[in-house]
Specification:
The protein has 461 residues and is of the alpha/beta class. It folds into three domains: 131 residues, Rossmann fold, CATH 3.40.50; 168 residues, Rossmann fold (3-Layer(aba) Sandwich); 136 residues, Helicase, Ruva Protein, domain 3. The protein is 46% helix and 13% strand. The protein is built from 18 helices and 14 strands. Strands 2-1-3-4-5 form a five-stranded parallel sheet, sandwiched between helices. A five-stranded parallel sheet has the order 7-10-13-6-14, with helices on one face. Strands 8-9 form a two-stranded antiparallel sheet.
């Protein structure tokens, strides 16, 4: 098969004889040719599949060639368009070229000249695509760094994200609550050829059946009481982009049937209408449920599961990659310290407790813990006393709170912390090493706090 056989052309002309003759000529030379007898059909075809080149007549009764060209470039910015017309004028040629046409030809068509133009136009398109592909490969290698972690399983996940982002297959993302399923989905989108289009997350657990139907597929004017105007559904409005069905396991069974049909046919029908509308979206789905068990229980359709589960990406829970906790802690410290530009650290005792905690809420819970700790610690580093009490079950002999007689609810957190530290220091006869271990901070941090107390006029003894 020649190289030309891989090139697909959309040929648009309302004159049937011209359409047939040019199509026959191009097919004989190994091109894949799809024809449209008017501009509306051409735009519908562009919505359904990608082409390497568009050749369109200029003057057509419903939608003219310039409108076809503009739609083609909206769907595929790198595509070239050749415009042909029997009403050639300098003004119309200048207008077509200024709008982005590759070339402007007058009828009658000289087939050899047309073939030469096709070769030049497709060479230009292929070069653009090659450059775009190389940029995407570089971006893929760099972009997955936003998913924090160097655990072996996370590194495998990053490789899989970079690889499958370049394809257009459906992906099912699984993992417990808080593991970062939407982050993985957004990373796939950002590394994909669809990155310039829309990314649309849809929370299936937040909508009832009627709302899902209306939001996904839209409705016509007067389709129901209160429908004063036509409403485009989410799948239609996201055409060309990526849709994430978050919590897909929460979708009602009736909606699962309708979604399956839309994914199979790549078409939707608005509520109150009979006309099918083509859609072009890449589907990502995320769940924290066991969908195979849901299938056995009759709560999820098996055929929809296989439609969504072309590729599965599983995110391990944080308790299975504890070696990533220090990395995530530093990331969240930097994230929440940006506003005041103050650098914070986490004490040895606090970090150890974080590493030994199981994190049922995963990375999202760790993020909340660090944000809360920074709000409590003020200008100081994060200590064990700034962490939630449920985290204190670590190996250090920790006194998580000072004795009741030292706690005064009318005093500030800083004042209570100072009295607690001094009480612990006195209980170990001034031994700073023992005191630091009990409090859950390192000796340098304790020394820094004590110097601060002395500079404020408090006697340390």
């Amino acid at each position: 098969m020649s190289e030309e056989a891989t090139i697909s052309i959309l040929l648009v002309d309302d004159e049937v004889i011209n359409l047939q003759n040019v199509s026959h000529f191009l097919v004989q030379r190994g091109y894949q040719v799809t024809t449209a007898a008017n501009g509306s059909d051409a735009i519908s075809l562009l919505n359904l599949k990608a082409f390497d080149l568009v050749i369109t007549d200029l003057k057509m009764p419903d939608v003219d060639g310039v409108q076809v060209m503009e739609s083609a470039k909206q769907f595929y910015p790198e595509i070239e368009v050749i415009i042909i017309t029997g009403y050639a004028t300098i003004n119309s040629a200048v207008k077509a070229m200024s709008r982005g046409a590759f070339y402007y030809m007058a009828k009658p068509i000289k087939l050899k000249e047309l073939h030469d133009l096709i070769v030049k136009a497709t060479e230009k398109t292929m070069l653009r695509r090659e450059i775009s592909f190389l940029k995407q490969r570089i971006k893929a290698q760099q972009g997955v760094t936003q998913f924090i972690g160097h655990n072996r399983e996370i590194l495998k996940l990053k490789d899989a994200i970079a690889h499958f982002a370049q394809s257009d297959c459906n992906i099912l993302i699984t993992g417990e609550t808080g593991t970062g399923k939407e982050l993985v989905a957004r990373t796939i989108y950002e590394l994909s050829p669809r990155a310039g289009k829309r990314f649309l997350p849809i929370n299936c657990g937040a909508m009832n059946e009627e709302l899902v139907l209306n939001e996904l597929f839209g409705h016509t004017k007067d389709a129901f009481t209160g429908a004063g105007k036509m409403h485009r559904g989410l799948l239609e409005s996201a055409s060309g982009g990526v849709v994430l069905f978050d919590e897909i396991g929460e979708m009602p069974l009736v909606m699962q049937v309708k979604l399956l049909r839309a994914l199979q046919e790549k078409k939707i029908i608005r509520i109150g209408d009979t006309k099918e509308i083509p859609i072009d979206v890449r589907i990502l789905a995320a769940t924290n449920r066991d969908l195979k068990q849901d299938i056995e229980d009759g709560a999820f359709r098996q055929d929809l599961y296989y439609r969504l589960n072309v590729v599965t990406l599983h995110i391990p829970p944080l308790r299975e990659r504890r070696d990533d906790i220090p990395l995530l802690v530093n990331y969240f410290l930097a994230k929440f310290s940006r506003e005041d530009d103050q650098t914070h650290a986490v004490s040895t005792g606090a970090l150890k407790c974080l590493e030994e905690y199981d994190f049922p809420g995963n990375a999202r819970e760790l993020e909340n813990i660090i944000e809360r700790a920074l709000a409590l610690c003020g200008d100081d580093d994060v200590q064990l006393c700034h962490l939630p009490t449920e985290l204190h079950a670590c190996n250090y002999p920790v006194i998580s709170q000072p004795p009741a007689k030292h706690m005064d609810t009318q005093k500030s957190l800083e004042e209570n912390e100072r009295e607690y530290i001094l009480a612990v220091l006195r209980s170990v006869n001034g031994n700073k090493t023992k005191a630091a271990k009990i409090i859950g901070i390192d000796r340098v941090s304790l020394w820094r706090k004590l110097k601060k107390y002395e500079s404020n006029g408090f006697r340390i003894s």
